[in-house]
Design goal:
The structure holds two protein chains of two kinds. Chain A is an alpha/beta fold. Chain A has nine helices and ten strands. Chain A has a six-stranded mixed β-sheet with strand order 6-7-8-3-9-10, sandwiched between helices. A four-stranded antiparallel β-sheet of chain A has the order 2-1-4-5, covered by helices on one side. In chain A, strand 1 and strand 2 form a beta hairpin. The longest helix of chain A is centred in the C-terminal third of the chain and has 18 residues. Chain A is globular and about 50 Å long. Chain B has two domains: 182 residues, no CATH class; 176 residues, no CATH class. In chain B, a hairpin with a 2-residue loop joins strand 7 and strand 8. Chain B contains 13 helices and 14 strands. In chain B, helix 1 crosses helix 11, helix 2 packs antiparallel against helix 12 and helix 3 packs across helix 8. The chains are: A alpha/beta, B alpha+beta. At the A-B interface, helix 3 and helix 4 of A face helix 10, helix 11 and helix 13 of B.
Amino acid sequence: MSTTTLEQIVAPSALNGKHEDRTPVIEVRDVTKVYKMGTVEVHALRGVSLRIYPGELVAIMGPSGSGKSTLMNILGCLDQPTSGTYRLDGVDVEKLNDDQLAEIRNKKIGFVFQSFNLLPRTSAIDNVEQPLIYAGVPARERRERAKVALEAVGLGNRLHHHPNELSGGQQQRVAIARALVNNPALILADEPTGNLDSKSGAEVMCIFQRLNMEKGITVVFVTHDPRIAQHTRRIIRIADGQIVGDEPVLEPLIACSDRVLQL
Amino acid sequence: MLLTELVRLALRALSANKLRAFLTTLGISIGIAAVIALLAIGTGVQEYINQQFASAGTNLIGILPGRIQRGGPPGGFGQSSVLTLSDYRAVVNGVPGIVAHAADFTSVGNFAFGSRTSQVQVSGVTPSFAQVRNWNAARGRFIEESDNTSRARVVALGTTVVKDLFEPNEDPIGQVVRINGVPFTVIGVMESKGASVFGDQDAIAFIPLFTAQERLFQRLAFARTGERVISTIYLQAASDEDRLFIQAAAREILREQHRLKPDDNDDFSIISQAELIETFGAVTSVLTIFLAAIAAISLLVGGIGIMNIMLVSVTERTREIGLRKAIGAKPAAILSQFLIESVVLSVIGGIAGIVIGIGGALSVSRFVDFSAVVRPEAVVLAVGFSVAVGVFFGIYPARRASRLNPIQALRYE
């Protein structure tokens, strides 16, 4: 562990207003999303605009049905907005076809899910390698990069364990390594601690905080858990398909206890 | 994505459910095994028939009296036609390019030696018969020219006759056997030709042609004109082209000999060994293809089994598909993943089927006269077929997987 100080973690370096000169990772303008359920039109998003800059640690919060999942799917390039524009790391996403979206997801986004979504009967390192396979990285380099990613989440000694041999927290850390391995512009974490006990949850949050702080990786949480939100530096609140709040967290909680920090 | 990568992925997915993969594979194995075994047996039968014909001598032409009908109603009853010695001489003298020739007069004789008897075909032959039919005495000697001129009462026995008349340790040569009551001295024992598609070829005995006609079958062996009757004329050609020429020339001469008008049908038949091989070959290959086609139906059933399992697998692995899409798998990558999986399934089944089929064909060979022949083409065909089955029945499930919506797939419980 490097010489991390509380001040560094807490330093509100990612507050709005300090980034005007930089390209946002996420730039959403007037995005709407309408689902047709039979004859009924459901307006999941009613004109959302937001910017997230490199190095930010953000929580998108909202109750279920607020449209936060829809927003996450659009941010994750799993879905296309009905109207409005979305630029991800400088790329206009809304006109891309399925193949191009797959490539964007592969290169620019790392997903972390509530239920880990690791491949069963597949070792940790093989799981982490998967995005690199689709990126066309040669086998030897894949191994090396997957190993580095697993070491970064403190699982350097569990490379060949299968998911069923790992604890929930460890499985989620494998999932984080998988999200990291392609050096994405953005990690999207959907309730990453939802299936974990509080100790494992803290472990996982600690890793996110460290990745953000040490490597400057942009992390966006989608959650309804205020405790998670309090570990970030900015909370965007969404309700009824609209952004209803966007404020900095002035004193973020620190997940990394001394024990966890000694990974 | 590299093919090796996809195959590795497929093997891992299949090994997760070994019993299921095994049972699915079994359907293909059985189909391929049946196709391979039937093709091998069919080819074996065909080669066996070819050998049988070849052992009768090469480039052989046989001329028989009467018309052998090839379809159509039989015509020309009443004008009972025969071949005579003068026909034989006219053909032999009139047709150039004949390498060897022979004639026989054949009927049935009752053999007796002591208390043992046997009823077999007796052929009065010219000495050149041995060369033309590629059939020699294994012990003793065959009929010679001097036997013919002297109308000698000598006989060369086929092995079946020897078995019928003599004890296993008895030497038949020099013994006197009676044929229709007439004593004959055994001068030789023929090579065994074994059973063939025509029956037991060794149930035969050879005596000189003139002896047969004058001393044994006097009543049958002379036409009303007093001419000597011949059962078969054998001609041997040097090559296949010569054979066609000789056939045509012999036909002309015989029509002239028999004073046939231009629109009369032939009252004799010229049969070449090559044509017989062709006819039999056509029959056996049609049969082989027919049987293999029936066997291929089981492949269809196996293919449906694969499709079924792949559909189940796609449903079971919906979340995996969703995840793969989320981390950047293009639809084509998902498609090829599942397609390769079904092809791997069917190819493993195909390879197992080839092994089982070859084993089955070889074990059938132990119980029959011919040996099954596994042609490399048949193996290539089987592998090709199993790949085709895998692709054909895998494409639908794979397309379904590749088209899943990643959001719904990730949420699938």
